[in-house]
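Milestone M4 deliverable, item 7.
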Amino acid sequence: MSVAKMENVTFFVPIEKIEENDLNLISSESFEPHDIKEIVDESVASDLLKVQNDNPYREVYSEMMNFLKMTEYLPPFDQNNVNLDEPLDINDLQRKFKLMNEGIKTFFNRKSEQLKKLSDYQNILFHINVLVNLNIELENLAEIDRIKLIFGRVPIRNYDNLVESSLDDPILILEVSRDKDNSWIFVFTSPDFEKEARDILQSAYFEEDVLPVDYTGTPREVKARIESLIEVTKISVSESEFAIKKVLYSNKEFVDKFYPLVLSHKRIYDLQSFSSSTGNLYLLNGWMPSKEVKKFEQKTDENVLMIDEPAEKLMKTKNVEVPVKVENRGGWLKGFEFVTKMFGTPSYGEIDPTPFVAAFFTFMFGFMLGDVGHGSILFLFGYFMYKKGSKQFGTVMMSAGTASIFFGFMYGSVFGFENWIPAIWLRPIIQINQLMIVGIYFGIGMISFGMILNIVNGFRQKNWEKALFSPDGIAGLVFYWPAVTAVSFYLFEGKVPYVTLTIILIVVSLIAMLFKRPLGQIVSGKKIKLGDGFWVETGFGMFDTLISFLSNAISYVRLAAFALTHEALFEAFWIMTLMVLPAKGGDIWAVIIFLMGQLVLVGLEGLVVFIQSLRLTYYEFFTKFFEASGREFHPFSFKEENRA
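Output delivered:
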């Protein structure tokens, strides 16, 4: 639920212990290498030698990976079973993998060529199916030279408008066929009018396609030939795949044995490229989470010296960027990490907002889309996405669906019907004022909490201007809370208590915010320096601050607005459903309209509510305290893409 404590670790390693130490670091997946010259004094850095590391395993690794790519095989790998002392003849391994690659390269290239042909044939077949009802020779279309022929598709909804808009122009449009979305058309025009014709087509979202005029015969004849070619090509692809698998299985034991060894040695040398040397010792510096440092110390060889320093201490003396590892326990909070990361990564020492995002986002989504039936559909959708591999998004949607179900019981709403179950709390469409008041005061509480988090961040970072005098600091709260209290009493009671105290607090806080820079410099013990344009910048800043206090709270009116929209949209579709019932075949049309209404409510409205929940989180809450200027921690591992 927070940003993990980090430590800067330096290893002093004898040459004979380098491989063992590096293998342990890579296996731990908890070490991100860092240039040691950035944290030591210049006099020391000048004496360090950069390790000139020409990785001897690079070429054999490349040959091995080419073989695995062509065979689409991933060997088993367990770093705990890697024996670095096992002798390896790199040249012999490279020669062996090269021979294996030469043995399958012909089949792989043939397979690639056949797959490309198969794709081309399938594309041609798609277009031939569009033209299959035409009784014309395709090659004749290529011989048209005095008239410009354009072939393509236009959305069905735009077809009639396109025809109508082109009646007065030298354009002839013939519809060839239709699918569920598009009309496939021939467009004939004069060469001199081609540019204007394309502009007209573009306005109707026309997409041009290529006619398969390289084939002789009618579309029906060409279709039969293409279908035969597709089947023959599929057989050829299968034969190439069988030949590749034959080579793979004859060498599988060899690949399974040497893949872990080559990979481990390759990555060890990759990690060594970050090392420096004193001549007798290798120095490797990097970042590790504090709790991982303690674990690693226990298994570090006694001949290896390990020195660790807290990141906070190093940041005071050196201008270094500490990578951030976010730690959230439990699948629910981890699911919402992607919502936070879409905005940014917290800087080191900053509060991770993920737990608060999980709570506020879930509440707002359910408040805006409170319906037992639709919430159940959203929950099932989230569960489906979770099982399909989108675990974080699936978790968020299951949480949103659960909140919708909860507020559905609060509102007494099931698939839009409000007479199936009693409302535990209120009916949105009836008690509008109460709904709006709850939404606004929830927003005031959320904004205030964001300001409190900003104050905490300011104190942790020893940024006194931020914590004490900024509009999102203590000065901002001293202004915001009395102002909100005064307005609330005036609206509900018709009078404001403690007027003098309220005015004093507001005036003092405004002065503090106006002079936040010099006051922050005084508290920090720095010399007062206002800088050019201070008064203009401060004046516009104060104006923006006062406007934002009002606009931020009003933004939360949308919580009530979308709750009302849900009921209003259902009523509209329900009225249309009842209107068609008396007509002939009205039962069928009523079912169609009702199902369409449900689809709009749960699909389109669910998407809009999701976006609005994100917007309120990002722009009304995060902007109060979240700088999001951190860099995510990327530990060095056996995966090539994780190289720091």
